Amino acid sequence: MALLHFAFGKHFREGRLDNQIQETCQMILGPRKLRGGSCPEFLPQLTNAGSLRAVPGSGQLVPNGALTFPQMVASPKVGLLPCDKWMLCFTDIPLNKLANWPAIAHYGQLAIAFQKSFQNRLGIKRVQYYELNRLHTDRKVIAYNQAQGSKAVQELANELLMFRKPKKQWPEFRKLYGMTKISAGPSGVTSEVIPTCADADSDLGFPSG
Question: Given CB 3.0 to 4.6 Å as the disulfide criterion, which of 27, 39, 126, 195 pairs with 208?
Fold first, then answer.
């Protein structure tokens, strides 16, 4: 099983495989230096029992100019706080399964392979994928939320951000935890779902790990 690192997948998705090859050679293989990047991740926040959240599309302007949301629904047991994190990602999928790996459509057909000794030398740690509907019973998530205000909270936050990722792929993930932009103007209130990261390229992809 090889340890693989994909880079510059944006070029592949835009039909520019030559550009992906060129940048990989010039910026990674030539200088013999891997490049990390900022990835959109999420911190699971346990919600209080019985808490409610507003339905974005129900926003209304009242005479004093305030924006109200008369429609409320039950909050999910766990909310997700967006937080960008710098990281360098790998996958250890078996080579004989690589051709049928769905994420190839996102990452591209070009990867750099490393031996197991490289992984051991750098202390590369495997990512664990979680089911969204089980997060409220996750021991690490519970520990993080109970540690608020203590010295341990930052270490737990880093663990969740860098080594715990949603099993759902991005299109499905956003349906459950989309970010909504609400605008109030002379014509009324409008709402729209916006990407979870400023990098629009991440809007198309799979979990970043």
Answer: 39
Can you tell me the distance from the alpha carbon of 170 to that of 43, in angstroms, rounded to the nearest whole number?
16
Q: What is the pTM of this model?
A: 0.64
Which residues does residue 46 pair with via DSSP β-bridges, in sequence order? 78
For residues 146 and 16, what is the distance between their CA atoms, to the nearest angstrom? 47
Q: What are φ and ψ of residue 112, in 5° steps?
A: -105, 125
Q: Give yes or no for a contact between 52 and 75, defined as CB atoms under 8 angstroms apart.
A: yes
β-strands 164-166, 128-130: how paired? parallel
For the record, the structure tokens of 117 come out as: 């000794």
Of 92, 75, 64, residue with least CA distance to 184: 64
The predicted-structure confidence for 5-59, as pLDDT tens digits, reads as follows 888 888 988 899 899 999 999 999 999 998 888 877 888 889 988 888 887 667 7
Phi, then psi, of 156 in degrees rounded to 5:
-65, -40
Residue ranges per structural domain of the chain:
3-204
d(CA 38, CA 208): 10
Neighbours of 180 (CB within 10 A): 13
> What distance in Å separates the CA atoms of residue 29 and residue 113, rounded to the nearest whole number?
12
